[in-house]
Amino acid sequence: MKQALIALVLIAVGSWLAHLHVASQTYYPVVRLSSPDGLTYTTVQDEVQERRACGAANDRFLKPIKEMCKACQVVFARCERKLEGLEAALAAGGAVPHYTVFAPSLRIAVEGPAEAAKASCDFIAGDMVKRGLRSTACLYPQPYSGSGPQEKKIRGPDPAK
Fold it and tell me: Is 141 inside a domain boundary?
């Protein structure tokens, strides 16, 4: 009986420590949406320090979109610990091969037919400026090689140096 009690206490303490470890990690709220007009939006918000805060950030972002665009589909809404490719470039403010809304704490890549993507990017950025986010802009596509300083910024320093 005593050994069973000790085992239960050790399991409880181990579970609690594992929860603390997971809860104290850095997470990036990432959302991908598709619209009925053929555009795909990939959104990366600034990092947060807890998993729960990340989920809440995604929920806050998605709520008005779901209300305004009933036909839009959420491809995914997740909390990433490590960003790669397009998402890493967005988070770091690096070169992105798509029209990109660049705003404080939020980056949105707009993929799809060039004319529609540009119009959507310009509209979103303009609307955000009207709502008081004056440092928001629509950035035009830039070549992205898939490697470079933007990934180092997200992943940490280069271990080779």
Answer: yes
CB contact at 8 A, 25 and 51: yes
Distance CA 35, CA 73 (A): 7
pTM of the model: 0.75
Say how many domains are in the chain: 1
Residue 123 domain-assigned (yes or no): yes
pLDDT along the chain (161 residues), means of 10: 58 56 80 96 96 96 92 96 95 94 96 97 95 93 61 35 35
Domain ranges, residue 40:
25-152
Q: Indicate whether 86 belongs to any domain.
A: yes
